[in-house]
Amino acid sequence: MIEHEVLDAGLGDADDDDFELSETFDSQLPDGRYLDRELSWLAFNQRVLELAEDPHLPVLERANFLAIFASNLDEFFMVRVAGLKRRIITGLAVPTNVGRAPLDVLADISAEAHRLQLRHADAWTSAVKPALAEAGIEVVTWDALTGDERERLYEYFQAQVFPVLMPLAVDPAHPFPYISGLSLNLAIRIRNARTGRQEFARLKVPPMLPRFVEVTRDGETARYLPLEYLISNNLGDLFPGMEILDHHTFRLTRNEDVVIEEDETENLIQALEAELLRRRFGPPIRLEVTEDMDDLTLDLLIKELDITDQEVHRLPGPLDLRGLFDLGRIDRPDLRYPPHVPTTALAFQPGEQSSRADLFGAIRKGDVLVHHPYESFATSVQAFLEQAAKDPHVLAIKQTLYRTSGDSPIVQALIDAAEAGKQVLALVEVKARFDEAANIVWARKLEKAGVHVVYGLVGLKTHCKLALVIREEDGVLKHYSHIGTGNYNPKTSRIYEDFGLFTIDDQVGRDLTRLFNELSGYAIEKKFKRLLVAPLHLRKGLLRQIDAERRNALDGKPARIRIKVNSMVDEQIIDALYRASQAGVPVEVWVRGICSLKPGVEGMSENITVRSILGRYLEHSRIFAFHNDGDPQVYIGSADMMHRNLDRRVEALVRVVAPAHLKELLDLFALAMADTTSSWWLGPDGEWTRHSRDADGKALVDIQDRTMSNVQRRRRARAVR
Known about the structure:
This protein has 721 residues and is an alpha/beta fold. It folds into three domains: 17-31 and 533-720, 2-Layer Sandwich (Endonuclease, Chain A), CATH 3.30.870.10; 38-335, Polyphosphate kinase middle domain (polyphosphate kinase like); 346-529, Endonuclease, Chain A (2-Layer Sandwich). Helix 3 packs parallel to helix 5 (102-134), helix 4 runs antiparallel to helix 5 (102-134) and helix 15 runs parallel beside helix 16. The chain is globular. Its cofactor is Mg(2+). ATP binds at residues 72, 496, 592, 620. Keywords: ATP-binding, Kinase, Magnesium, Metal-binding, Nucleotide-binding, Phosphoprotein, Transferase.
């Protein structure tokens, strides 16, 4: 193991606390050097859409990418667009790194989002829907049904749908009803046959019913009708004696960003519960309507919902293609990616004399690096905590929980440990967006079982992924640590790409002990050895590493920077990378989502390359690798290069030291950045270009398939030995 003290993490002593980039730079960085973060996010969702449009992908996977696009865009409006609008209305400063008026930025975002929604709708209508039909899965309209099919569906409507429908009239005695966010609705105009008066009614499409109603099924062939089509063609049953004049589908998106002034509240949980109730009634932020909606109905919606013309998105039906997630229930493996079964990490495989692995014994032999979902979460992270809960020599378990599944075995392991008399500390981040309510439930369940539950530091989200097990061995307390890049969530671990490091290293154990003390008590600890910790020191530590590469390049030494993140937005980090590029440092950035950095600009970033990879798994790990004159400094962790991660969250990166692990991470990076690997390339103008096939039309390397093959090959090689 290579031993480094303060220099490893860029933390610890007074000189480091005062660290600044002290050198005066000869060249000034130009204005307009950042790409707009919101438009960059929309470009990310366009890449998701391009996967749905790809005819070489299995068609049910393409339908799933359409649903992901729709879900992503909903969250973008609920949080990002809503947040920008709220700041504009309240007069707060609007963060923009492109030097343009906030209202202009908001208008551009709306226009680009609408363009993508139209493209999204066309991808469904012109590409994915016909491809599904060719494969035997038809999504049909009412007009395409036979008489017998309509009769059968009418019986289903009467038995399963009609009883839960709630038509709401709008007249002087009935005010315009509340429209819940993301609900699918029918706007209906009717005429009273006796008085001749026209009325308006709103009908919510029940979200608890299947979005696609099965019409027929014959082996692998099936036909489905969207639920709103079934309802709209049987409106006469809901309004007997009335003439149905017109009906149109619409959908409202509300501001669902949660804002809590923690300094002004005495009880975070109570304040959060009140804010979650308020979220349901957040102001409208987007109105989606079918393109054939008449002006009379649209004008009524705009007036009653108090929404602007700019916030109206006319789209061809059907609306809310998140419903395509429902097609995931169709049993057609031939229309999906070939199954990949995670393997157990080599170090955690049972020995010849035992059916169960001893994870503590494996970790004592050396650091273990696991790569999910290629290597199993269940037989590594989950098994680690379950073994700790049962082991009589384990005295204490400390863990952070940011997002976890509703039936999480991780939560159960902590409960089992507490009930077995162990000291258990769970730091539950109840402010994890859209998981707040679930996390409150689990926090209370943990408290009832005797777990010490804390909620972190005021004003900061605890985003780091940490677990620490204290075990007594021959009268000595040993620290078994896990630092991950992803959540302790068994469900998402099957589709999120992440790394996790297990170690018994005393430096890491002491670091985590100090960090947990800071999070659960009042300690303010600044000295960490193998960790970089935000918000106080992570940014500073990375800037030191970047600047060291710049200086090495100026001195004629080899230099290289490689960074893998979900988002690259932070201006200080980006400027440091620009200056490293100006000094001749090759900089490679592997980013999944937002990137405000402009690569390939002469005199500023011509040595920077930016690539993005999307596929069957969501690239989620964060890696930071610095050449360091031949002594690689490589970190993994949960931090993205965003203001919130560096300044308003508790984050932790751990330095990876084992030579085999360094090679694995650097080899993965080299494969990702290779021209022969399928990826998107970012240009200086902010445009992403997909490179998925060579000049002869042959598919380029899929890094996720290759990684799975490599992991399975290593396991087979061990089995042969």
